[in-house]
Amino acid sequence: MIDFRYHVVSLVAVFLALATGIIIGGFSLRGEVADQLNGQVVSLRKDKAELQNQVNQGNASSKKRDDGVAQLSPSLLAGKLTGRQVAIVVLPGVDDSLVTKVRRTVTDSDGKVATTVTLDDKWTGSDYADSATMRDYAAKVALDPRSVKADRLGGAVLARALTRGDAGARGVLDKLADSDATTVEPSDGPAASAIVVVWPGMVDKDGQAKRWAAVVSGLGISVDAVVGVSSGSASTNDGLSPDALMTRLRDTPDVVSVMSTVDNGSLAIGQVAVGLCLRDELAGRSGQYGMGRDASAMMPQVEPSAEAQ
Questions:
Q1: What are the TM regions of this chain, as residue ranges (predicted)?
Q2: What is the mean pLDDT of the chain?
């Protein structure tokens, strides 16, 4: 009869054989596996280099396109705003370069920048925008605060203060400039014929875009000529996403029916659209322009059709 020691010896022999096979197999495959891995690394590096080259070519093409549009811009916009004063309202986080581009667009169109107003985040708080003080300001610019939604009141008051040009409007603008929520430069600029509102691409973090949309809506519905301009898409951890403030405005029919928007203001073609939008707004026409899916076209017609006029 086979005793227990025989079984032990047999099992040990089996495991030794397996271990030997694994070791020998490992040594024999090591070179082949290493070669395969090295080949994959080389292929991935090649793919990465090709993709980077495509990105570089795309960026170079985009720059050439923007440079070409920028060169054409003065001739496309010349005379579109002759004799017009334009106020620029700047929301928090806007890069100075965007404000500079809007200024240049106005001057290329033969208009003038009347005033630049920079707003603080306090404007989105109900204790500021719908305060007793703001309702008092509304009366001074001939605005019934009951006729405007509470969260739009601040924007409506600011729009009228910038465009009316009477003593009441001037007094309100002076009061706003004296607060820590608003900067007005110059403080004694003339009344504006039109307003451009600029903002950075936003994500709707903690309702930020919703609150600013109310302020911009108040501006847009209160005077005849307002253009809202976004720098472009918003940066997130997952990449770029559509500007949430622009999306909210374009989803609000009573706003977009009376004000124009441009969703790519950081680009040269976006600035051409800004100038043409100002021309159209002053003629009573509104539209939504840019590269977003909710834009009706890249920009307004350079020369509006007889039907549009």
A1: 6-29
A2: 86
Count of Cβ atoms closer than 10 Å to residue 131 Cβ: 14
Q: 71: number of CA atoms within 13 Å, CB side?
A: 6
* Whole-number Å distance between alpha carbons of 281 and 273: 12
Nearest in space to 154 (alpha carbons), one of 120, 205, 202: 120
Buried/exposed code over 229-260 (b: 16+ C-beta within 10 A; e: otherwise)? bbbbbbeeeeeeebbbbbbbbbebeebbebbb
Chain-centroid distance of CA 296 in Å reads 17
Query: What six digits make up the tokens of 234?
Result: 């918003």
Separation CA 175–CA 260 (nearest Å)? 29
List 117's β-bridge partners, or say none.
89, 184
Distance CA 49, CA 61 (A): 18
The tokens for 45 are 């590096």
Map residue 151 onto helix, strand or coil.
Answer: helix
Q: Are strands 234-236 and 239-241 parallel, antiparallel or unpaired?
A: antiparallel
Nearest to 135 by CA among 119, 157, 162, 120: 157
> Using an 8 Å Cβ cutoff, are 70 and 180 in contact?
no
Give the alpha-carbon dihedral of 248, 150, 198, 264, to 10 degrees: 10
pLDDT at 1: 45
Distance CA 157, CA 218 (A): 8
**Residue pLDDT, tens place only, 231-244:** 998 877 677 889 99
154, 215 Cβ separation under 8 angstroms: yes
CA 28 to chain centre: 59
Instruction: Say how many C-beta atoms besides its own lie within 10 A of residue 301's C-beta.
Output: 11
Distance CA 116, CA 28 (A): 75
pLDDT tens column, 21-39: 565 555 555 666 667 777 7
